[in-house]
Amino acid sequence: MSLLVPDHQDPHQNHTTDKPMPPSKAGTQEQGIIKLSLVNSDLWKAFHTTGTEMVITKHGRRMFPHCNISLSGLDPLTNYVIMMDMVPVDQFKYKWNKEEWEVAGKAEPQPPAHTYVHPDSPAMGSHWMKQSISFLKAKLTNNTLDQHGHIILHSMHRYSPRFHVVQADSPYTIHWSPYQTFSFSETHFTTVTAYQNNKITKLKIDHNPFAKGFREGGPHFQGKRCRPSKTSNNAEETRQIGRDAGCKSPSGLQGSLSALKSAKRHCPNSHFSPWLLDQDPTESLNTDTLDLSRQGYGCEEQMVPASMTYQAYRFAEHKTPSPYSDIDNRLCSDEPHVPDVATVPGYHSHPFSQDMHHQHPTAHHHMPASRQHTASTVAT
DNA sequence: TCCTCTAACACTTTTGAATCGC
DNA sequence: AGCGATTCAAAAGTGTTAGAGG
């Protein structure tokens, strides 16, 4: 499920290349009683230290590290929608020059991006707090004509994921619902179509099980496709990683959970990625979840008309996030009213970023005027 | 010439259905 | 019949590379 979000130009964003947002404390942010933690914060920090790169492809590529968060402080009996989007970190385009990233000019105009709505949304607070929330299946693409609902980004630009916790009984009502926004400085990344920094490549191979094909017995380690290249350093270092690799993964022991557990028993010294084992695959986030499919708008990523772009929001001033605001009326006036979550009247216009300059740069708390008296913001 | 992007490649992991044993 | 464990095949996902294109 995906939808358009407003202009991401956050007045509090850093417009220099080396000034990240204030770091979140131990990968956790707190707003009032709601606390959001970045579960795999250490992994993100490891990448961030080197300079995280995310590959984007025409057909969509998953993130690695992927975003994995945990929530606490929600009302167990209230429904929430959890969403993730990407905001530009600055206004520059970058290029990789030998050993470091350098500015290569002004950023491209932002494409019509989408917000990734967690497939379990909406679900009760108890459901979200039961276990960590993974955005593993969110995909990034550089295809501005993408029809699969992937998050559209520009290559060679820097972005930061944001997480939105929206109190809503259904995606139809999130527009006028209280919501809070979280982001973490360690999750900033540079988009690429091919990895530039070989240190990042090494980190990915070390932590991403899908990369094992190239680490253990892959073509590059068998000489089939090994050849000198413009990135020969990468090739040699990658081969070295292959030579250094330890116990081979349990081929033949398949069967999802049982195979995984069995494999772990049989090969306790194997290198199993944390993101595989941290989460118990038997714990699915399906219980207590409203069945969106039955309601006709599905749990899957959904497209929204491409007619609305960020640009429309560049002129939007901060207003109370009311469904009756002028901005909303203007933006939605020619939207077709079809029963799709992404095209619900007012749905696009949820002012996720219109009023960021009133909030802490990394933790934002938004409430409709009528409910603000009940909210307290504690920016960490 | 340089830089960026794409498709193909060979491999691993994930997923879901089928099968087996208790 | 029901349940859990195991097996199998297909689909999905991975990083690297050469080559195309600007």
Write a short abstract of this structure.
This protein is 17% helix and 22% strand.
Describe the structure.
By secondary structure, this protein is of the alpha+beta class. 17% of the residues lie in helices and 22% in strands. It has helices at residues 41-50, 125-130, 198-207, 212-215, 232-244, 256-266, 274-277, 326-332, and strands at 2-3, 28-31, 34-38, 53-55, 61-62, 68-72, 79-97, 100-106, 115-117, 123-124, 133-134, 139-141, 151-152, 157-167, 179-183, 189-192, 363-366. The strands form 3 sheets. Strands 1, 4, 7, 8, 9, 10, 14, 15, 16 and 17 form a 10-stranded mixed sheet that branches. Strands 2-3-6-11 form a 4-stranded antiparallel sheet. A 3-stranded mixed sheet has the order 5-12-13, with no helix packed on it. A hairpin with a 2-residue loop joins strand 2 (28-31) and strand 3. Helix 3 runs parallel beside helix 5 (232-244). The radius of gyration is 21 Å and the shape is globular. The two termini are 30 Å apart. 39% of the residues are buried. It binds a DNA duplex (22 and 22 nucleotides) through strand 5, helix 3, helix 4, helix 5 and helix 6.
List the helices and strands and how they pair.
Elements: E1 2-3, E2 28-31, E3 34-38, H1 41-50, E4 53-55, E5 61-62, E6 68-72, E7 79-97, E8 100-106, E9 115-117, E10 123-124, H2 125-130, E11 133-134, E12 139-141, E13 151-152, E14 157-167, E15 179-183, E16 189-192, H3 198-207, H4 212-215, H5 232-244, H6 256-266, H7 274-277, H8 326-332, E17 363-366
Helix pairs in contact: 3-5
The chain binds a DNA duplex (22 and 22 nucleotides) through strand 5, helix 3, helix 4, helix 5 and helix 6.
